[in-house]
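RECORD TYPE: inverse folding
INPUT: structure tokens
STRUCTURE:
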């Protein structure tokens, strides 16, 4: 789990004003000694959940706030986080946002519905609206006008049949001019809804219909959309609780007493809609860990909220006392996950992952059960290590060991959604007594996980990339069906039906390791290094590399953000791919940045073919990278979005720009 400046200062910044600037009267110190309660450090509980009473929830929040006020210890920040439908079946005639699960949309910086293209970038804190014409040209429509504060920024869009949803949040910190110390602003995030039928339906320019906006207390971690329902996972710490600086036990006791007298409603988030502010949750819709005591607690909550886009007054929300990293969502289920590091008496740390499963419907979020597993999901796209299939939750975790010869143990678990006393039972795991083979060679960490129906694909890497295929057809007896070892690694895997798999990652020359003591390689010649796209045949138990394309000294954001991939299946066997790629090229010892959209064509007939088809470049050389680049394919038209500018080309002639918007 990454720890940022945000997390290192969280304990002091989020809840209390630091530096002793309180104007409160000094608290007198009695002559009798005071015995303070031994409130435990806040940590992520791995216990299952139980509904909270108002008193229990207040105790947990108060204890967390109090401990933060007396301790210099810090709390971990969430992984902010957060792949498309695995099936390459024929769908719309235009590309859409790549997502993890079919029917579960994810926020992105562009959205396209075949007619309207909406674009936002971090540099342009607005939403551009463009309409396609029959000849492929684009008309600029009136931008979506949002009433954002100076510190707000847009961080994602959703586009359903009738609504454009715009997610925005504020910058959490500002820098004091007199010293290098960061202080918090009260955190808020907003969801603005635009009725695109009313605003852009039949007119060349937008009407003045303003978006409807809901503003929420807290920090948005991640989101999803299922049909006309938005699903939001957010955190909240009370930012208005200011206590005097406590340097004595009497002052600490006074702070604890003050917190105990604070109504629990003042410690929970609210939201505002149509100039009316209401509680987002209350104690009756909140959960606490089952092992919570009078001496434990956490200073904040996570909230899981659903919004009906057709009726913005229909908001369902629950909260859990604690800190979590993200969610995995299917069309009917949401799993909140968190990762914990526990220190034993020897100073050694062990990793644990806690999972809380909720059933999601249009009118309710219902807690089902929990599980805790040894190991971590890791920091890069941890939600891809979870999958739901046939009432089974599949999970891949990694345990860091103390063995220098083999630093990682990777494990697969199949959990039943038929909870027993709010616990998700383990149906099977791998390795096991019947199939003891480990996932990965010694010292290889996982770089990619992807589930598809009754299989899992896992890539591990240290010098060479083994691609493992796990057979999950019998949840109680999973096993490694086959593996393939090739140079480099994949950091994102895209199943193309039952027989093919696309890997996106890096080609790494294993010869670079031959100078290390005891390290040898069977690869005789140096390999070209750079971004790699590989097509695999996985129709049999042993994977087979069909072909690969390598972009020398290149990198693509698709390795870490699958929404950077443009994917358009023209048929079951004919697929078009677009990838932003950046390389540094030396011309006469002068280095320059080469940014472009690389095009690939995949044909899955007759054993499969992967071809590099060409490139689309911006009209001017730029030093800007491609990390926020996107593209849209529709028919023969390619719209490459680079730094908020749309470059128009044709698939039949991608090197010729025919428009710029």
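DESIGNED SEQUENCE:
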């Amino acid at each position: 789990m990454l720890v940022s400046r945000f997390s290192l200062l969280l304990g002091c910044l989020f809840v209390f004003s630091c530096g002793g600037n309180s104007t409160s009267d000094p608290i007198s110190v009695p002559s009798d000694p005071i015995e303070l309660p031994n409130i435990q450090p806040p940590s992520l509980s791995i216990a299952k959940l139980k509904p909270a009473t108002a008193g229990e929830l207040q105790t947990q929040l108060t204890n967390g706030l109090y401990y933060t006020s007396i301790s210099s210890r810090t709390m971990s920040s969430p992984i902010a986080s957060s792949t498309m439908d695995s099936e390459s079946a024929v769908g719309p005639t235009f590309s859409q946002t790549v997502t993890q699960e079919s029917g579960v949309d994810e926020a992105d910086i562009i959205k396209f519905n075949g007619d309207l293209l909406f674009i936002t970038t971090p540099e342009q804190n607005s939403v551009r609206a463009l309409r396609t014409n029959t000849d492929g040209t684009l008309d600029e429509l009136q931008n979506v006008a949002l009433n954002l504060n100076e510190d707000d920024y847009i961080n994602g869009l959703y586009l359903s049949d009738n609504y454009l949803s715009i997610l925005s949040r504020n910058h959490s910190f500002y820098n004091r001019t007199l010293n290098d110390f960061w202080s918090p602003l009260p955190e808020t995030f907003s969801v603005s809804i635009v009725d695109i039928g009313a605003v852009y339906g039949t007119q060349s320019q937008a009407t003045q219909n303003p978006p409807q906006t809901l503003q929420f207390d807290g920090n948005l971690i991640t989101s999803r959309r299922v049909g006309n329902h938005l699903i939001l996972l957010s955190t909240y710490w009370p930012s208005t609780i200011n206590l005097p600086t406590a340097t004595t036990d009497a002052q600490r006791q006074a702070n604890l007493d003050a917190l105990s007298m604070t109504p629990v409603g003042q410690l929970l988030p609210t939201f505002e809609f149509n100039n009316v502010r209401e509680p987002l949750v209350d104690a009756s819709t909140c959960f606490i860990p089952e092992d919570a005591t009078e001496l434990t607690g956490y200073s904040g909550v996570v909230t899981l909220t659903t919004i009906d886009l057709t009726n913005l007054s229909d908001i369902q929300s629950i909260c859990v006392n604690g800190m979590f990293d993200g969610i995995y969502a299917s069309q009917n289920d949401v799993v909140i996950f968190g990762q914990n590091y526990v220190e034993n008496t020897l100073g050694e740390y062990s990793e644990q992952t806690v999972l809380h499963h909720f059933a999601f419907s249009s009118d309710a979020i219902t807690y089902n059960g929990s599980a805790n597993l040894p190991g971590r999901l890791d920091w890069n796209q941890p939600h891809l290590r979870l999958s739901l299939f046939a009432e089974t939750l599949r999970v891949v975790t990694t345990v860091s060991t103390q063995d220098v010869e083999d630093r990682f143990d990777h494990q697969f678990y199949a959990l039943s959604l038929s909870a027993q006393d709010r616990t998700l039972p383990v149906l099977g795991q791998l390795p096991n007594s019947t199939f003891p083979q480990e996932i990965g060679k010694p010292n290889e960490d996982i770089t990619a996980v992807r589930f598809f129906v009754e299989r899992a694909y896992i890539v591990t890497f240290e010098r060479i990339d083994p691609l493992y295929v796990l057979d999950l057809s019998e949840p109680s007896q999973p096993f490694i069906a086959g593996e393939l070892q090739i140079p480099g690694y994949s950091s994102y895997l895209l199943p193309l039906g039952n027989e093919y798999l696309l890997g996106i990652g890096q080609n790494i020359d294993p010869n670079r390791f031959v100078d290390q003591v005891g390290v040898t390689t069977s690869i005789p010649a140096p390999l070209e290094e750079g971004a790699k796209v590989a097509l695999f045949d996985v129709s049999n138990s042993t994977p087979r590399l069909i072909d690969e394309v390598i972009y020398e000294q290149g990198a693509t954001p698709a390795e870490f953000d699958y929404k950077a991939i443009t994917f358009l299946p023209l048929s079951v066997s004919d697929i078009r791919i677009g990838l932003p790629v950046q390389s540094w090229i030396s011309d006469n010892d002068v280095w320059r940045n080469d940014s472009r959209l690389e095009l690939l064509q995949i044909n899955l007939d007759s054993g499969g073919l992967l071809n590099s088809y060409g490139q689309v470049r911006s009209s001017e050389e730029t030093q800007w990278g491609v990390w926020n680049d996107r593209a849209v394919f529709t028919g023969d038209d390619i719209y490459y979005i680079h730094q908020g500018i749309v470059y128009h080309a044709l698939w039949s002639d991608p090197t010729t720009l025919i428009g710029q918007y």
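NOTES: Helices lie at 5-13, 54-70, 196-200, 249-260.
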